[in-house]
Task: structure prediction
Amino acid sequence: MNSETTRYTRRQIWVLAARPKTLWAAVAPVVIGAAVAIDDGFVHVASLVAALLGAIFIQIGTNFANDLFDFKKSVDTADRLGPLRVTHAGLVTPVQMRNATIIAFSIAFAIGVYLVFRGGLPIVAIGLLSILFGVLYTGGPYPLGYNGLGDIFVLIFFGPVAVGGTYYVMAQTITTEAILCGISPGLLSTAILVVNNIRDIKTDSVTGKKTLAVRFGRRVSEIQYLVMVAMALLYPVFAFAVTRTHGYAMIAAAAFIPAIPVIRLVLHEEGRILNSALAGTGRVLAIYSALFAVGWLI
Result:
């Protein structure tokens, strides 16, 4: 047993592997989708709880799969700057991580059975595709995250798909408004990924991981981050200007305040300190979703 192993309890190891700071990307769109559904008069608590738990376990399963496949592809090296990867650190074996990944996705699948009963074939498609892309993000012969396609996957599935899917299982119908409300959480979730990719430009370049940050450079990724955060936080203002409804949702733009120090980190720092920017972007997403949901329901 190495010294790294003895630093953590088994519970701490699996919490590290689940990467709890990233789970806001799963929670936020469910919160927003539920708020829009409730405002439209559709209240279904069981569907809301199931959608929330399903989203969380898909995210955890994806994080476990990333931990495993990055280890297998030798992407995680001694120069890694990101949060500890437990398989690479020797805290769990690849077999244990494989089993944990299967368990997490199986729990999500089991929860999805109820949601399919509630929502039918559209939920089958959303659930299976979410799990499939969660694996293919770093697994398979053409991993999305290694070829610059991770941004598109995150934008779509942690945005309009997650918000629209939550609305659908609660309302058993869908609206354009619900889908459009998914733009902001999708953008902010993608911004989390952008920070991750900026931090890892040097190591990803060496290991052959061709993220957009590697392909186009740090400056382009910084601009991408700024544009995504600005568009996300200004969406409620734009929506009110067009529809003249749900004006109180504009309070979500106040998430710009905690975003300021995070933006400074992204623009001026490098290395491990960008882990704080990654967590900070997650907090901005959490604050935005909470303020948006409250404002939308007032």
Q: What stands out?
A: The chain has 15 helices and no strands.
